[in-house]
Amino acid sequence: MIDSISSRAVSPGYKAWLRFRRHPLALLGSVMFIIILILALFAPVFDRYEPNKLNLADKFQAPSGEHFFGTDRVGRDIWSRTLHGGRVSLLVGFAAALVSMFVGIVLGGLSGYYGGWVDMLIMRFTDVIMTFPQVVIILTVATFVGQGILNVILLIGLFSWPGTARLVRGQVLSLREEQFVVAAQSLGARDLVVIFKHIMPSVIAPLLASLTFAINGAVLLEAGLSFLGVGIPLPTASWGNMLETARSLDVLQDGPWMWIPPAIMILLNVLAINFIGDGLRDALDPKHIV
Q: Could you tell me the pTM of the whole model?
């Protein structure tokens, strides 16, 4: 029993947890995000009405005991749409971030490991992608491929990887001459095995912190695309296309209950994930001592 506790106490994972829990904003962000995630995942449990059900008799009502967040212009319940919109926005955020991280890890890993013309080719391609304004190019491509959750995920993911690729490339460049890498190469391990089995585990720490910011970026980008009308198509609710109603001046002035709830949810979600990312960055930094 004592041995297990002792080994647990000196393990890197346990030390990282000790550093993380000493970060008050990271703990606050974790609690906030868990609450948001529970509300989104169990939206059918917490909602009171179908999110897409029209009820013209109750249209454009202010918040009340019957409709916690009021109703929109066609009588749909804002509370229910906010909950279900969170499911869509978080799905897009997580899925797009994973697509982005996958592409960035593969390209950055190959670039850093092989160097030479491979590095030059991949990095110049990365520079080209970074040259174009992200929103503009996604808007342009979206007009051709159409709307839809899958399209939004792929578009955000496939145009958001350059930062990850540069991060991974830098880490791999600093690790490829280490003794454990040279030993694996001398034993005849294949290049892909060396990259993804021996080098990548050492890159996970900075990637975890980067992933949190990638999720935030994807959520905000989805909101922006939906606000501009090329994101998640109606009647499917997302925090972004709920904000689209704020483009109307009369709704902005006379019906703030229609856009304030999704705006607050986006704000809280971004703050929570940023706090978690800051905590992970500090906790996984080997320079910090418990």
A: 0.85
